[in-house]
Design a protein that fits this description.
The complex is a heterodimer of chains A (225) and B (205). Chain A is α/β, with parallel strands linked by helices and 225 residues long. Chain A has one domain: Double Stranded RNA Binding Domain, CATH 3.30.160.670. In chain A, strands 1, 2, 3, 4, 5, 6 and 7 form a 7-stranded mixed β-sheet that branches. The N and C termini of chain A lie far apart (94 Å). Chain B has one domain: Beta Barrel (Porin), CATH 2.40.160. The longest helix of chain B is centred in the N-terminal third of the chain and has 17 residues. Chain B contains 2 helices and 10 strands. With 205 residues, chain B is mainly beta. The chains are: A alpha/beta (225), B mainly beta (205). Chains A and B meet through helix 1, strand 1 and strand 7 of A and strand 2, strand 3, strand 5 and strand 8 of B.
Amino acid sequence: MKVLSKKSLRRLAIMPVLVLVAGLVIGGCYEDYGLTIQDYDAYVTGYVGGTNFSAYKYFVMPDTIMHIFGGTSLTDPLAGARIYDKQILSLTASNLQARGFVRITDTTQIGVGKPYDPNKVLVALIGQFSTDHTGYYYDYWYGYWGGYYPWYGYPPAYVSTYSYTTGSNVTELVDYGKSNSQKRPNPVWVGIITGLTGTPSTTQSRLATGINRTYEQSPYLFAGQ
Amino acid sequence: MLKILKTFVLAVLFTAAAVAQNQQLSGVSWNIGFPTGQMASYIDKTSYGGFGFEFNRMVNDNVSLGANFSWNYWSELSQDIINLNNGAVSGTQIRYYNSFVMLLNARYYLSEKSAEFKPYAGLNVGAYDILQRLDIGVYTLDNNHWHFGLTPEAGFLMEISRGTYLNTNVRYNYAFSSGTTYSGADNTMAYWGINLGLIWATGWF
């Protein structure tokens, strides 16, 4: 009977190791994180550099959410989302109030010589976008929002094309005084919640999570005294 | 730095070309990567997905010169907030690094030519192509840069059959800055590597 040499035994012992190694290398490349619809939500915030947020004390907010949609359709694809407007407006107001901003409901009281100094007032504008085409998302809505977008200065090296139906909720805080004197909007902060269109049962909680997240990740956003 | 690199490259190429054809070692390896520093601030996770190829020639009883090519892959699921200069991004993210490495290598073997166990120390010089990717929401952001790299190593060969060696080494992969990460930070990358593989030698040991 032939007895295996010491070196042959070592060679045999290495085989399971090689198989294990091959398995790990292949397995390591294709990790499945099991993402759900909610995991495709992203929260983006940006502000104009040098803004002194403590210079502001008040805010005004229209009671309407603007819907922006492209293509040739005349039908608002976001019409069904109107049921969330109240929740969005309420959460936005409560987040700003929690940061010390006082809401003004009577805009006739804002102005020089009036109770509220316009330079201490922010306007909270909320808009929603719907896209269901294939293309470059940022290019698509860049033109709609006054040329300002939150990745300004940080253009992604590459933004992949997509073919999903997406929706975005965009909040802008605009300097009331500057906008009036310069006759153009002067946004100082933007918060975006964007994601795939999901089921109505989860939309409400996703919106709430998203709105709160945009303020949580903006620790500089506090009113002055 | 460029002068040292040029000298090193020329020395490897000329010396390797001058030695006999049958004094060569070739090998494959499984490469495990542990990110450090800036790299670890993006993905703090060990890479078990990596492999390498190497080709070396002995120029005397104790020195080999050659080249190696390797790849390491990292990915991590994260919920962290990514701070930018004037803002932030958050949400479920999958973060990736892919490191493609091409290095020239010089090794010094501490043992005798006939020894079954051959510890060695070496130095690698060459190029790192490191691709940083962020998947967030429905977006993918890529940030790809080539780096000059300097990589010291220490390891050993252990003969498991005639002409076949188990090769184990530890490398400190250092890819010098060549730009910025997508968030604007310096993109110097560094990771420790533990490489386990086999080397086949012809006509020498």
